[in-house]
Amino acid sequence: MPPQTEAETVAIIDKLHKLIREVPLEYLGDVEKAATDLFRHRREDEAEQVEEGGAGGTCASPAKRRKKDGGKAKRSGLEDLKALQAYLREKVPVEAVMPSESLHYNPTGDFADHTAANTVSVDSFLWDEADVDELCDAGKLSRNFCLDCGSRNTKPLNFVSHSLSIPELNFLFTKALPA
Fold first, then answer.
1. DSSP-assigned beta bridge partners for residue 156
2. What are the tens digits of pLDDT across the range 162-179?
3. Hey, how many other C-beta atoms are within 10 angstroms of the C-beta on 86?
């Protein structure tokens, strides 16, 4: 659901800033290059829209831009995010927690019952819910943990993410942020 207030938009932007600050140093260069390429392509697309629409005119549709390029389609922002997602999936572990990182659990508030034993970190940018289902089916992630080791007394794990999902990022860059 799109943010309704400026405060909700600011909260989404703060979440994105936190995500960027949490990138492990060994991957910062790769992420910076990918993000720079992504934004460069977006700026080029926007510049072409303005050129075709003229001052005060309407911007050219994606179909018109493809025709101008001889039918060769340029990647949209969503396609750029998907490409960045695929690239990063190859670079980080499934849990997206690097050996240089450690997770800390807040003993108060909404997440007071989350501990290392009952919580798994899954990066929402890298893995959506369908991907998590596939990872669980393939045995790479588990949905449950044993309350009494070796018994059938199990309970579902808590799933948390430290990042925005692709639909959230797409909304942020296409609707929430000023042009």
1. 144
2. 888 888 888 888 888 876
3. 10
